[in-house]
Write a structure and sequence with these properties.
The chain is of the alpha+beta class. Among the domains are: 2-161 and 437-458, Uridine Diphospho-n-acetylenolpyruvylglucosamine Reductase, domain 3; 164-266, no CATH class. 29% of the residues lie in helices and 22% in strands. It has helices spanning 2-9, 64-71, 89-95, 102-105, 135-140, 175-188, 246-252, 260-264, 283-288, 296-309, 311-319, 338-348, 400-411, 426-432, 435-445, 454-458; strands spanning 46-50, 55-59, 76-78, 112-118, 124-127, 150-160, 164-172, 190-191, 194-195, 198-205, 208-217, 255-259, 324-334, 354-360, 380-391, 415-416.
Length: 462
């Protein structure tokens, strides 16, 4: 904490205040600066796991990978474990996160009990839900992306889990039926008479949709239940860190069995399916690619290298391909509008696969909307995630696909996460993310305006 404060004091007035960290899960460029950042190098650990209270005290820069390593020996995990290992607790709270338990547990910040926040005034403020003198900061912090400060300590709730997870991959030919089924599962927490503990899905192509239903299953309790014509009879768990690829198994298998650890990180090994851009889906390349490098952070570094060198643009020009537009977004769509969005997306963007992850926000401690990311409490949304590039030609620098997505999401009553590029005008942005309230809270905790505003961070790329 002393190093953090000293690094803050060393940043000249008027210079941007940023974290000095080597990893990031953001997909938006930032203006270059020679100003040193905040030294958070000592804030990346787990302070304590309390297996009786089922809570964990965690430093803000601790990754979920390290936290899970500390909680799983107690048979505990965070309520929501974002799908990539190097996402930090502070990042998931200030920048949102989601996973297959979000249909029953909401987003990561909704299981936070207490936070210490290093504010733009250079002070540590301990915040809790209402009633608390700093509850306004607590409620406004999610989706603030460092515009209100940075977490140094977080206390979160944990849930008890067994050691194995049974998966059922259920195919749908109709997006409307898939959406209807999602709504029913969210309501009942069951499907075909069996409990559902985790729920996500993949849209591989028009008319080919899957929901993956996860059921916590103890090795000392019941065995996997019969599914379909015959019993699943699964005794050995699958391994998708080697030659097998998880997302392909969704199309190939009706049932599966994973350890809890491997279930939590099933998407990280291949960065969902994005590792294919580096040839890692090729069996020969996969055998030669070291297992320790099959991680989302490695692929993210390679993307950054390409962005700096322009290698793929050079290849496209050599092969006469149209210029690419990067389309990397996660959007929340009300479940009853999901079919409409997917049909529109197929026609106007044409990128597949896309990830589907239902979520329901319980709201703040008073049942209100979270101000800076105002999903309606109790309403079922489906996160639609799509990450790649689209050949659009000379208009690519103007981001026509991304702008069209923003407009469609607004039309359908959804919201867009801000970890990637955004193109809203200021009035629209402030209306969608309650800019007036955010500015008022920022003025209270950052009176000298040392921290960049959310609009500057998310849209102006500062």
């Amino acid at each position: 904490m002393a190093r953090l404060k000293a690094s803050y004091d060393a940043i000249p007035a008027g210079a941007p205040v940023r974290l000095a960290k080597k990893t990031s899960n953001l997909f938006r460029p930032r203006a270059h600066t020679d100003t040193p950042g905040l030294d958070v190098s000592g804030l990346d650990g787990v302070i304590e796991v309390d297996p009786v209270a089922r809570t964990a005290e965690v430093q803000g820069m601790c990754t979920y990978e390290h936290l899970v390593d500390a909680t799983l020996p107690h048979g505990l995990i965070p309520y929501v474990v974002p799908q990539l290992k190097t996402i930090t607790l502070g990042g998931a709270v200030s920048g949102l996160g989601i996973e297959a338990t979000s249909f029953r547990n909401g987003l990561p910040h909704e299981s936070v009990e207490e936070m210490d926040i290093f504010t733009g005034a250079g002070e540590i403020v301990t915040t809790r839900p209402a009633p608390d003198e700093h509850s306004e900061l607590f409620d406004t912090f999610p989706n603030s992306y460092g515009s209100l400060g940075y977490t140094t300590r977080i206390r979160i709730k944990l849930e008890q889990v067994p050691d194995r997870v049974e998966l059922r991959h259920v195919r749908f030919d109709d997006a409307g039926l898939l959406a209807k089924t999602v709504a029913e599962i969210v309501e009942s927490r069951e499907y075909d008479g069996l409990q559902v503990d985790g729920l996500d899905g993949v849209a591989f192509a028009p008319g080919e949709y899957y929901l993956t239903l996860a059921r916590w299953l103890s090795s000392e309790g019941e065995e996997p239940a019969p599914i379909g014509a015959g019993p699943s009879a699964l005794e050995e768990t699958s391994d998708y860190t080697g030659q097998q690829i998880y997302f392909r198994s969704i199309q190939q298998r009706r049932t599966d069995l994973l350890t809890m650890h491997d279930y939590l990180w099933r998407w990280d090994t291949d960065w969902f399916w994005c590792s294919g851009a580096f040839g890692v889906h090729n069996p020969v390349v996969r055998r030669l690619w070291p297992k320790r490098w099959r991680r989302s952070d490695v692929y993210h570094h390679l993307i950054g290298l390409n962005r700096r060198t322009g290698f793929m643009d050079w290849v496209d020009r050599r092969k006469g391909r149209p210029q690419r537009e990067m389309v990397v977004q996660d959007v929340e769509i009300p479940v009853e509008r999901l079919e409409e969005f997917l049909d529109w997306f197929d026609t106007e963007v044409g990128m597949r696969p896309v990830w589907l992850c239902p979520l329901v926000s319980p709201g703040t401690s008073t049942g209100a909307q979270w101000p800076t990311y105002p999903l309606h409490p109790g309403t079922t949304y489906v996160n639609v995630g799509f990450w790649g590039t689209v050949h659009v030609g000379p208009d690519a620098p103007d981001a026509p696909r991304n702008r069209a997505i923003e407009a469609k999401v607004q039309e359908l009553g959804g919201h867009k996460s801000l970890y990637s590029e955004a193109f809203y005008d200021r009035d629209t942005f402030d209306r969608l993310y309650d800019g007036a309230h955010l500015a008022a809270v920022k003025n209270r905790y950052d009176p000298d305006d040392r921290l960049l505003s959310l609009y500057d961070k998310a849209v102006r790329d500062r």
